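Submission sheet (multi-component)
Chains listed below:
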Amino acid sequence: MRKSVFILKGNIIYSKNRTGLEICEHGYLVCEDGFVKGVYQTLPFRLGGNPVCDYGDCLIVPGLTDLHTHAPQYAFRGYGMDMELLEWLEKNTFPEEARYREAEYAEKAYRIFTAGLQKSAVTRACIFATVHREAALLLMDMLEKSGLVTFVGKVNMDRNCPDDIREGTEESAKETKKWIRDVIGRKYANTAPILTPRFIPSCSDELLEKLGALAKEYRLPVQSHLSENTDEVKWVKELCPWASCYADAYDRFGLFGTESPAVMAHCVYSGENEIQRMKENGVFVAHCPESNMNVSSGIAPVRRFLDEGIRVGLGSDIAAGTTENLFAAMAHAIRASKLRWRIQDGTLKPLTVEEVFHMATKGGGSFFGKVGSFEPGYEFDAVVLDDRRLASPRLPDVRSRLERMIFLADEREVRAKFVRGEEVCSQNLKC
Amino acid sequence: MRKSVFILKGNIIYSKNRTGLEICEHGYLVCEDGFVKGVYQTLPFRLGGNPVCDYGDCLIVPGLTDLHTHAPQYAFRGYGMDMELLEWLEKNTFPEEARYREAEYAEKAYRIFTAGLQKSAVTRACIFATVHREAALLLMDMLEKSGLVTFVGKVNMDRNCPDDIREGTEESAKETKKWIRDVIGRKYANTAPILTPRFIPSCSDELLEKLGALAKEYRLPVQSHLSENTDEVKWVKELCPWASCYADAYDRFGLFGTESPAVMAHCVYSGENEIQRMKENGVFVAHCPESNMNVSSGIAPVRRFLDEGIRVGLGSDIAAGTTENLFAAMAHAIRASKLRWRIQDGTLKPLTVEEVFHMATKGGGSFFGKVGSFEPGYEFDAVVLDDRRLASPRLPDVRSRLERMIFLADEREVRAKFVRGEEVCSQNLKC
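Outcome: structure written.
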């Protein structure tokens, strides 16, 4: 059978590793059957005759991966921020999430969230819903239509939260199983379930044990929070006196990368034991620098994670973070690392443009498989960026233009977006 | 003579002091002859019959003041940031600034800068040009046409910079005097000169003495940099062994608030002596949090300044900061203060929404006189913000909408802008 091939032309930038950038100016990026065939300075003779979309002087980068976000919190992004994590959860988050019991509200809110994600440069995301099974399915239906590829989790909570969103332990496990079977029945192409115990303070050992069994039975990945805030870390020690570290409280139940892939958000206060556990278990870190500033958590030792070879991606962490714009997350990651280096620990050098770009593309993307790069065989997720809004008396070089995107781009720069070889959204189209 | 009166209607928000917000929902903001007459929940009978522009559910806030920015650096905002201050000056800034010798380049670049400022929510700014007299005048001509009110400074430098932008000591003073007289001759309505010794490392004592004389002769205000970076502070100690602190190196020559108002950017490393000097001399601080992160300077102890009663405004510090969007500066100020509190010094509590809003309006505005508030008698600078882009399943209260603006607004939210009672720019008009 004849293969489906198309070609994008522009200034192609991608990461093979975290220290360098691959740049091919006015080059050809070839898609074959949804996968990257290659990047070429000159189009090979054998590929001639296929359609080329020439984006002129635009930048073409891999789709970005948001490794940690909360769909129901998009409704209150940008306000109620004069608090730390635990108070913020109690005052802002839990009351808002309780509203998702009502399908009508959930539909209205999730439509806004999905539209925001669709317009952005993000092509993949790991998303928390709420405890409500129906609302989670509704969100997954919408995301499936968006063309983006996502992991979505119905949240589990059976303690330390208000009555109206607390599940019974047995109920939580049962609803989760029912949700998984519903999802399987819907045969989504791009939307997959991920187990989502909220965090240790809101999940009893018994619940975690049941979720561990589900992870094994259905081979489901896991997402949660880890060592975000000092009060939270202290609380986990009280709740799980038997755990050698916060991570251990997940690991004991097979929810920390041993049975299935796991991604943990924050890791601001991960000590040496925990870092080693993350490394041994191949756990992904979702670094959420804006969130860590906004709710006064601190700054994660990202350079340590990278030095250990731990895989790190970026998370917007809506609504402790305010924006789905992953370029902003890259810039915040650089800034946070500079402050950490200056103020807290001069041994951990600031993150570079190359490193944060790697995190936002291949670093986080690899949670989805071969995603986030233009190396041959990678899934074809690409974003075309038009930076003419940022007028300049002289055009900087391509690497500088990428750096400028990191500090200044938003959805206005997204000219076109491709996921798994399909164009999903363009500013020129009605999304 | 009949007075000129017009009225804006909307959700009016402003600061009287730094701890509270004045909010008048669906209220009337009355302008009389370019000044604020008052804010009213119900329009007083005697004001009836005057034109009302009803902005519905929009927010109306005082125009924002950017207390520190560099017009020639707008050309390279967002890139070349993997450096600290002194290296960044040498590699990025000085070579770019040297280009402003050519009028053609300066015109092209300053047109972009001015357009950016005009679209933003900023109504007042303190702006560095370059050492070039002609280019500074050109910038002032453009700003005058923009309708914004600005202080603009021809920069002075006679040491420690490349030959092509270093002036002789005598030459620098002479050119400055000629520039001042040229400015006086142009009879600008909204554009005023401000003395601008770049910073101590690039100005000899002899030059500062001459500038001090000019400050006195022409009663000109002064803008400069102070205690931004550790290496810079060390260098100043070597260059001015006679100075008791960095501030003293300006103060000795009458350039630190005694002869005329002075605004100093950064003050990250101002010690107790320097803080007391700032207080005694009534010096304004231009807090530039994004810049301080981007070039790894650190975090200024803003809470200390406020506790001392020192007047603090916000600066974008383009291009060590990346954006003229002062909302972003407010958000960065909050974030930086939270990290400082968490990591560096738990005694200085994080800045609040009320405090950063005050800094961006009345705090910085007061460098221009009675500016930055809607109290009666203030100059009428107002910005109308339309936040419908930030869709939400339910409309938050007005204070929350202001907080959301701080974290998420950019020039797209600016529906209309008034300076000294004149409408200067609206997204609906061609600016």
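Remark: The domain at 5-62+373-423 of chain A is CATH 2.30.40.10 (Urease, subunit C; domain 1).
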